[in-house]
Amino acid sequence: MAVLAGFCLFAGAAPVRAQTVEETQREFNRGHYDAVIETARKKVAAGGYLDGWHVLLVKALLTRGRYAEARTNALAGVEDFSGSMQLRLLARETALLLNNTNGAARDLDEIRYQIERRGRIEQSGDNLAALGRALILLGVEPRLALENCFKKAREMEPSSREAWLATGELALDKHDYSLAADTFRGGLEKFADDPDLLSGLARSFENGDGDELSKALDAALKVNPGHIPSLLLLAGGLIDSERFDEAEKQLDLVLKVNAVKSEAFAYRAAIAYLRGDQAKGDAARAQALHGRPANPQVDHLIGLKLARKYLFEEGAAAQRRALAMDTNYLPARRQLAEDLLRLGDEEEGWKLIREVRARDEYDVTAYNLTTLHDQLAKFRTLTNDDFVVRMSAHEADIYGDRVLALLGRAKAALCPKYGVQLKRRTIVEIYPAQKDFAVRTFGLPGNPGYLGVCFGSVITANSPASQAPNPANWEDVLWHEFCHVVTLTATHNRMPRWLSEGISEYEERVADPAWGEHMNLAYRRFILGGDLTPIAGLSAAFMQPKTGEHLQFAYFEASLLVEFLINRYGRDAFLGILTDLREGREANAAITARSAPLAELEKQFAAFVRQQAEALAPGTDLEKPPADPAARKVWAVAHPKNYELAAEEARKLVAAGRWAEARPLLEKLADSYSGERRADNPLWSLALAQRNLGDTNAEAATLKRLAAVESDFVELNLRLMELARSHQDWPAAAAQARRLLQIQPLIVAPYRTLAAAAAATGEATEGIDAWRRLLLLDPPDPVEAHFSLARLLHQRGGAEAEARRQVLDALEDAPRYRDAQRLLLEIEKQSPPGDPAPAPFPQPK
Question: What pTM was computed for the model?
Answer without folding.
Answer: 0.90
